Structure formats: C-alpha cells, structure tokens
Backbone:
C-alpha cells in the first residue's frame, strides 16, 4: 500500500500516512506471541497453556478487558485458569484470530466456538464467523446450521438457513439430521416449516417418534396439536 507524504505550503508541517503500518504492526505482534517474547499472561485450559499479551487480549475482548482490571494488575498475577466451557484448541484458534485476523474451526467444534466468542464478547468475530457460515449453507447442512444459528442468535444466518430448509424440506424430512433432533430443536424446525409443509410436518413427527418410540411417544400430542389445528383449515 502506498505511503503518502503531505507538506504544507509553509513547510511547517509534515504529515505521513503509511497504509501498510497496521498490517506490519499486527504481524510483528503475532511474531512476538508465537515466539513467546514479551508475553505477560498465560491462559491455562485443561493443563495446557497459551501465552499472550494482556494489552492485546484486553483490546480484542471485553471479557479480558474486565478481567485485567486495576486489582488484577496490582496482584501481579501472570497465570489465569479459564473456567468457562472451552478447549485448548478453540482458545488457541481465538487467540490466533486476535493476533492475525485468521482462524480455522472444525465443524464439530462450531457450537462451542460460538459459545466461547459470546462469552468473550467478541461481536466482530461473531459477525464475521456468521458471514463465513452463510457461504457454506446448502440443503445438506441447513438443519445443523439453522439449529446453530438459532441457538447463538446469528439472525442473518438463521433467516437464510430457514429459507433453505423450507425450500428443500421434502428432500430432508427423513434425514438423520431431523431424526436425531432434540424435542426442543424439532419444535423450532416445525415452527418454521409447518405452514408451507403441513403434510410433511406430520410425516416428520411420525418418523421422529418411530426412531426412538419408547422415549418419544410422550411427545406425540404436543407435537401434533398445532399441526392438526392447521390441517383443519387447509
């Protein structure tokens, strides 16, 4: 990126704007963290440790900003045992993002990942992650993505996933993703699709119950009550 130099007519002021500076600065901070240089805090998760710089963490996360208050600084503590539900892999990915703006998360870890960034108050990362998740949306994964988006209040993702779900429901109503839903998640899915997919909704309920009849039979009445009401007026 170009460096701009401006000098006023009287030669009393020199102004320099280096567009590459923020990128170079962040890269050097990442190198410091990677090489464990000048780090002043250790995050401990399940006996594994991640070193970092308090100022960097505080700038990126309201959680860390509140944690590293005046009392904490005065205590001269340099190790924090993270008590929230997390894993070393997820926290390492989040710390990588803080230092580099890049991360990778495995599909199996997405739920806990979003739980962590909510806990850390990292709204920008949540927004960017939601946008990335939307690009992966298709008829095969729309159930899982909808449930994930609904749980973590990813509103734009939820809307797109709901549309994909409704448009493709006839082809996925007998899928494992549907049959293995909890009763709570199934109710949310049915609420989305039942007005446009009344008959398929009834099929879903029946197949879902059959998949674990002894434990799910008790939910038959509550699940069919609203659907039956809607059928009366079809």
Residues:
């Amino acid at each position: 990126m170009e460096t701009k130099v401006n000098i006023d007519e009287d030669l009393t002021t020199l102004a320099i704007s280096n567009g590459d500076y923020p990128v170079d600065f962040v890269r050097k901070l990442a190198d410091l963290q990677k090489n464990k240089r000048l780090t002043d805090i250790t995050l401990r998760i399940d006996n594994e440790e991640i070193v970092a710089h308090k100022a960097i963490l505080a700038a990126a996360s309201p959680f860390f900003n509140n944690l590293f208050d005046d009392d904490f600084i005065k205590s001269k503590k340099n190790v924090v045992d993270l008590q929230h539900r997390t894993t070393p892999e997820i926290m390492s990915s989040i710390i990588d993002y803080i230092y580099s703006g890049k991360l990778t998360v495995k599909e199996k870890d997405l739920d806990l990942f979003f739980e962590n960034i909510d806990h850390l108050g990292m709204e920008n990362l949540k927004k960017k992650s939601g946008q990335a998740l939307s690009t992966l949306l298709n008829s095969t994964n729309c159930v899982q993505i909808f449930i994930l988006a609904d749980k973590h209040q990813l509103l734009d993702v939820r809307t797109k996933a709901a549309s994909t779900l409704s448009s493709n429901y006839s082809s996925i109503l007998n899928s494992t993703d549907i049959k293995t839903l909890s009763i709570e998640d199934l109710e949310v899915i049915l609420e989305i699709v039942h007005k446009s997919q009344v008959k398929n909704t009834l099929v879903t309920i029946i197949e879902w119950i059959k998949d674990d009849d002894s434990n799910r039979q008790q939910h038959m009445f509550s699940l069919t009550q609203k659907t039956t009401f809607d059928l009366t007026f079809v």
